[in-house]
C-alpha cells in the first residue's frame, strides 16, 4: 500500500491528542490525526446528532446489538438497556477479564460522552503522584491554560439552590452534611448559561433531556468545539476518522511507520493504510496507547521500549453506588445530567474519598442518590501481550476492585448511619449488588510519566515518540482526570516544541 507522509501524526483525538494537534498546528507543523471513531456533526433522521440515555439507538454504542449502560437494572428489572443495531456509536465499553472500561469513540474521544466535570486535584496530591513535575508551574501555568481552553465554568449558586433540576444534588448534600461531611462545587465544561436557558424553555434541551453518556446535542464544550476546532483552524491539521492504528514500528531512516485499518459503518475493514511520520504523538487514551506500545515492544516492532510500558494502571479508585432516601427526601423527576457537587473527604488520611454526586435522570421520582466514588486505591495492574491470541490483556483482579469498594463503603456507611438510610440493591445486576466493582470511567496509566517516559512524555528508548494522554497518570489522581490530562499535555507540548522540533 502507498505510504502517506506527514511530518507529525497524532493517534487519537481525545484530550491528549487534541492538545498535541492544536499546538503542532500552531507551530506550523503539518499534522495528521488518526481517529478510530466518527466525526459527530451530522444529524440523523430525528434531526439530532446524538441519542439520549432514555431512548438509545445505534448511535449510542460502539458496535453493539444491545446497550451496556452503567446501571444494569432498576428495581432488578432489565429496563435500562435496549436492543440496537451494530454501528460505530459514540460510547464503548471495553471488556478485560475482571474490569470493563468505558471510553468515548469519535472526534473528541471521552469529551463526547463524559460528565464534563472539570476538577483540578489538590496540589499536594498532584505533587505526591508526580514528584518529578514542578507543581508550581503546573498550578501557575498549565492548569489555568487547560481550564481556559476547555471552557470551564461554574454553576450560579443561586440558581443551583432554587432549580428543580438539582434537587437530587441538594438532597445528597443534606445527607452528607448530616454525617459531618463537606461538599464542594465542581466546575464543568457544560455551559451553565445555556442550561439555564434550557430550564427557562428558551433553548433546546440537552443536559435537561437526559443526554450525556451517548453524547450531548447542545451545551457541552466538547473537544471538537474547543481544541480540535482551533487545531483545524490553523490550516495545518487534518483528521481522518474511522481509522484504527493497529501497529507502530520504525523505518531504517528513523521515521515511524503506522498501519491503520479503515473501517466502514458495519465495522468491515475496507482498506489497510500505511503512514509514516517524523514525530509521533500517542493520544489513544490509557487503553489505546498502552495496547499499541505493549504490542510494539513485545512483538519486536519497537524492542527498546522500557519494561515499565504497560505497568502502573489503575481505575482512579472508581466505585459506583446508590443510596435509598426516605420518602420525604425526594430527588426529583427532573435531573440535569451534569454533576456539580462532590463529597470531599480526601483530606481524611484514614480513608481518602472524593465522591461525585451523580444524577439518575429517569423522568420519575425514585428517591435514589447515586454516586461515583473516587478512592485512593493504591492497587495497580499491568497490560501484557498474549502472543497466542495476539491480544493485549489487563491483569486487574477482583481483589483489587475490593479495595475501592471497602473505601467507598466506609464513607457511605457513615452517611447511611447518620441518616438511617440504606443502600440500593437493585441497580448493578445480581440479586444484591450494592457496589459497581466491575467497571470504571477513569482508566489511568500504562505509560507512566517519569517511568516509561521521561518527565515530559518522551517515550524512553525512542526519540521523537511521545505520549500525551491519560496513560501518563500513575493510576490515580483523586478527582475526575481530564483537566490533569489536558494540563500535562500542554506542558509536554510546550517543552517538545521548544526543544525537539526546532528546525
Ligand atoms: P480519550 O479516551 O479521551 O481519547 C482517546 C481517543 O483515541 C478516542 O477517541 C479513541 O477512539 C482513540 N483511539 C484509541 N485507540 C486508537 C487507535 N489505535 N487508533 C485510532 N484511534 C484510537 N473525566 C473527567 O475529568 N470528568 C468527568 O466528568 C468524566 N466523566 C466521564 C464519564 C464517562 C461516561 C466516561 C467514559 C469518562 C468520563 N471521564 C470524566 C473520563 C475522561 O473522559 C477521560 O479521562 C479522558 O477522556 C481521557 O482522555 P485521553 O486523552 O487519555 O483519552
Automatic annotation (TrEMBL):
Q: Which GO terms describe its molecular function?
A: cholesterol oxidase activity; flavin adenine dinucleotide binding; steroid Delta-isomerase activity
The cross-references to Pfam families, in alphabetical order and at most eight, read: FAD_binding_2, GMC_oxred_C, GMC_oxred_C_1st, GMC_oxred_N
Keyword field: Cholesterol metabolism, FAD, Flavoprotein, Isomerase, Lipid metabolism, Oxidoreductase, Steroid metabolism, Sterol metabolism
Family note: Belongs to the GMC oxidoreductase family.
The cofactors required by this protein are: FAD
What is the protein name for this chain? Cholesterol oxidase
Q: What residues does the Glucose-methanol-choline oxidoreductase N-terminal domain cover?
A: 104-127
What processes in GO biological process is this protein linked to? cholesterol metabolic process
Q: Does the keyword Isomerase apply?
A: yes
Pathway listed: Steroid metabolism; cholesterol degradation
- EC number of this enzyme: 1.1.3.6, 5.3.3.1
Amino acid at each position: 500500500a502507498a505510504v502517506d507522509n506527514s511530518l507529525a501524526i497524532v493517534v487519537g483525538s481525545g484530550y491528549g491528542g487534541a492538545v498535541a494537534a492544536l499546538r503542532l498546528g500552531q507551530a506550523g507543523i503539518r499534522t495528521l490525526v488518526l481517529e478510530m471513531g466518527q466525526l459527530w456533526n451530522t444529524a440523523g433522521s430525528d434531526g439530532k446528532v446524538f441519542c439520549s440515555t432514555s431512548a438509545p439507538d445505534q448511535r449510542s454504542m460502539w458496535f453493539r446489538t444491545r446497550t451496556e449502560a452503567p446501571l444494569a437494572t432498576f428495581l432488578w428489572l432489565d429496563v435500562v438497556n435496549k436492543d440496537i443495531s451494530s454501528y460505530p456509536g459514540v460510547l464503548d465499553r471495553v471488556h478485560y477479564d475482571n474490569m470493563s472500561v468505558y471510553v468515548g469513540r469519535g472526534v473528541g474521544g471521552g469529551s463526547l460522552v463524559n460528565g464534563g466535570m472539570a476538577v483540578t486535584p489538590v496540589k499536594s496530591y498532584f505533587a505526591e503522584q508526580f514528584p518529578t513535575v514542578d507543581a508550581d508551574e503546573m498550578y501557575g501555568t498549565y492548569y489555568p491554560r487547560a481550564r481556559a481552553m476547555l471552557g470551564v465554568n461554574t454553576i450560579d449558586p443561586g440558581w443551583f439552590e432554587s432549580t428543580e433540576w438539582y434537587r437530587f444534588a441538594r438532597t445528597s448534600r443534606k445527607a452528607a452534611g448530616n454525617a459531618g461531611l463537606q461538599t464542594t462545587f465542581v466546575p464543568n465544561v457544560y455551559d451553565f448559561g445555556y442550561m439555564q436557558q434550557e430550564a427557562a424553555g428558551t433553548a433546546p434541551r440537552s443536559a435537561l433531556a437526559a443526554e450525556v453518556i451517548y453524547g450531548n446535542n447542545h451545551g457541552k464544550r466538547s473537544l471538537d468545539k474547543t481544541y480540535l476546532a482551533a487545531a483545524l483552524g490553523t490550516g495545518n491539521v487534518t483528521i481522518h476518522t474511522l481509522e484504527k492504528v493497529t501497529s507502530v514500528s520504525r523505518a531504517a531512516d528513523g521515521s515511524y511507520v503506522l498501519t491503520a485499518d479503515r473501517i466502514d459503518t458495519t465495522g468491515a475493514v475496507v482498506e489497510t493504510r500505511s503512514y509514516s511520520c517524523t514525530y509521533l504523538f500517542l493520544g489513544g487514551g490509557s487503553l489505546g496507547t498502552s495496547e499499541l506500545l505493549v504490542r510494539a515492544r513485545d512483538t519486536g516492532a519497537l524492542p527498546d521500549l522500557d519494561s515499565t510500558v504497560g505497568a502502573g494502571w489503575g481505575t482512579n479508585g472508581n466505585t459506583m453506588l446508590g443510596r435509598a432516601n426516605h420518602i420525604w427526601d425526594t430527588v426529583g423527576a427532573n435531573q440535569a445530567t451534569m454533576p456539580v457537587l462532590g463529597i470531599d473527604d480526601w483530606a481524611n488520611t484514614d480513608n481518602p474519598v472524593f465522591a461525585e454526586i451523580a444524577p439518575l435522570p429517569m423522568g420519575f421520582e425514585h428517591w435514589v442518590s447515586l454516586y461515583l466514588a473516587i478512592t485512593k486505591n493504591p492497587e495497580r495492574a499491568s497490560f501484557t501481550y498474549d502472543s497466542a491470541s495476539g491480544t493485549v490483556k489487563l491483569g486487574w483482579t477482583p481483589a483489587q476492585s475490593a479495595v475501592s469498594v471497602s473505601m467507598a463503603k466506609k464513607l457511605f456507611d457513615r452517611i447511611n448511619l447518620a441518616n438511617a438510610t440504606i443502600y440500593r440493591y437493585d441497580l448493578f445486576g445480581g440479586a444484591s449488588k450494592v457496589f459497581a466493582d466491575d467497571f470504571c470511567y477513569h482508566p489511568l496509566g500504562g505509560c507512566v510519566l517519569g517511568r516509561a517516559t521521561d518527565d515530559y512524555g518522551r517515550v524512553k528508548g525512542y526519540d521523537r515518540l511521545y505520549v500525551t494522554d491519560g496513560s501518563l497518570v500513575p493510576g490515580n489522581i483523586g478527582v475526575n482526570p481530564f483537566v490533569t490530562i489536558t494540563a500535562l499535555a500542554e506542558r509536554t507540548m510546550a517543552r517538545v516544541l521548544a526543544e525537539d522540533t526546532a528546525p
